Amino acid sequence: MIPRYPVRLGDRLEFPDPSGAADDGLVAVGGDLSPERLLLAYRCGLFPWTVRPVTWWSPDPRGIFELGGVHVGRSLRRRLRQQPFVVTLDRAFRAVIEACATERRPGVWITREFIEAYDRLHRLGHAHSVECWRGETLVGGIYGVAVGGLFAGESMFHRADDASKIALVHLHDHLVSRGYALFDIQMVTEITGALGAVELPKGEYLRRLKLAVALECSFGAVSA
User: Fold this and answer.
1) Is the pTM of this model over 0.90?
2) How far apart are CA 134 and CA 86, in angstroms?
3) How wide is the angle at C-alpha 27 spanned by C-alphas 44 and 11, nearest 5°?
4) Would you give per-residue pLDDT tens digits along the chain (224 residues)?
């Protein structure tokens, strides 16, 4: 029987095949934000976008950064050489996601339920952050979820010029060094497009995702 999309989820830990979803990318409604369900969602090519109810999405096309393909323009390259910030990994995950939630931009979706759910994932070793510091002040960062050789970037913020871009470049370079195969960003925005993000048809994304999540990659030790 062909499922009718979006599929209404019950208590069972499962998702429908996202390849058959409607054009808007909505695959399923319901379920919860437990670590087990979130990790399964990323393995299946889905991510949550709302709560009450939880909605699960797989857009077509899908935004990614090709690993090795981030575009660093002349001005950003100059800023990187100046080393305006101290950059760390996993030093302040909760602070990064809370800062992302307060960004004033259209479509902000990070509610308290999301913060708690992804903080649990972080404490279990599945969600990670990159932080930019000016002294003891957090001025930028990005966070996301790692599953096998997939890193799914969720959101970023900045409180100083270029801080989020520098965090993203450091994250990209870190993923390359750790052998990751797929850097998902869900959708291409003006900022990520300028940094070299590209779109993949959903079918190609799902094919590459299957290969990526089968890898054994480690995000690495927490920076000092």
Assistant:
1) yes
2) 7
3) 75
4) 567 899 999 888 999 999 988 778 999 999 999 999 999 999 999 999 999 899 999 999 999 999 999 999 999 999 999 999 999 999 999 999 999 999 765 555 799 999 999 999 999 999 999 999 999 999 999 999 999 999 999 999 999 999 999 999 999 999 999 999 999 999 999 999 999 999 999 999 999 999 999 999 999 854 33
Q: Is 138 helix (H, G, I), strand (E, B) or coil?
A: strand
Choose one of 58, 75, 93: the last residue of a domain. Answer: 58
Domain total of the chain:
2
Q: Collapsing DSSP states into helix, strand and coil, what is residue 112?
A: helix
Rounded to whole angstroms, how far apart are CA atoms 168 and 190?
14
Q: Which of 129, 116, 145, 114 is nearest to 43 (CA)?
A: 145
